[in-house]
Amino acid sequence: MKLLAPSILSADFSNLEREIRYVELAGADIIHCDVMDGKFVPNITFGPLVVSAVNKITELPLDVHLMIENPELHIDAFIKAGADYITVHQEEVIHLDRTLNMIKELGAKAGVAINPATPVETLGEILHFADLILVMSVNPGFGGQKFLDYTLSKIKKLNDLKIEKGYNFLIEVDGGINKQTIQKASDAGCNIFVAGSSIFSSDNVSAATTELKNLITQN
Ligand code: DX5
Ligand code: ZN
């Protein structure tokens, strides 16, 4: 399964409905929402209020990436706001088993993100019940950064483990995805491709979306 998830981080927030409509009509599968608190990452974005507004704009599933401290305190609010996937960071969550189960019990799909410097091995014991593993291909906090090639081997490792052990999680990549890098991530076994600036900072949001979508569906 290959799905395109535009990240609204780089969208024009004064025209969010129009921006989302562009990507929706051009083949986006999921809307990726980057939540940042100025603590876990240096940047601040938005909370459940904006996720709830996005949920009113689109029927597409919402993939909420929590780059915040103590995410477990806010999971319920984001699910009530309409999140279909909730992804927390391995580096932040001490009781990962408890937190993933909490997400599932509240009715969303449970994801875990790992920063570029965090090894796949730190997830060994939760891979059998996680719904999604997000491999950060940039250091989280900002859009428009360069794709870190060495993270491809982590996607490959996760895909090999999936095949070997029969796990069900989807593999997502986030950061620096454009028409050059998307192919490499796809070849490594990735399922969900987050793209922010290569879509929303382009001259033609619809065309950029369709182009990326075609690259993954042809593969
Ligand atoms: C970065 C965010 C990403 C960001 C990606 O911390 O998690 O989702 O929007 O932006 P690009 O695609 O511009 O690297
Ligand atoms: Zn993200």
Mean pLDDT: 98
Number of beta-strand segments = 8
Helix-strand pattern, N to C?
EHEHEHEHEEHEHEHH
**Rg from Cα:** 16 Å
Strand percentage: 15-25%
Quickly give the structural class: alpha/beta
Largest sheet: 8 strands, parallel
C-alpha termini separation: 10 Å
**How many H/I helices?**
8
Strand order of the largest sheet: 1-8-7-6-5-4-3-2
Unreliable residue stretches: none
Q: What does the model show?
A:
It contains eight helices and eight strands, in the order E-H-E-H-E-H-E-H-E-E-H-E-H-E-H-H. Helix 1 runs parallel beside helix 8. It starts with a strand and ends with a helix. With 219 residues, the chain is α/β, with parallel strands linked by helices. The model has no long low-confidence stretch (mean pLDDT 98). Strand 2, helix 2 and strand 3 form a beta-alpha-beta unit. An eight-stranded parallel beta sheet has the order 1-8-7-6-5-4-3-2. D-xylitol-5-phosphate binds next to strand 2, strand 8 and helix 7.
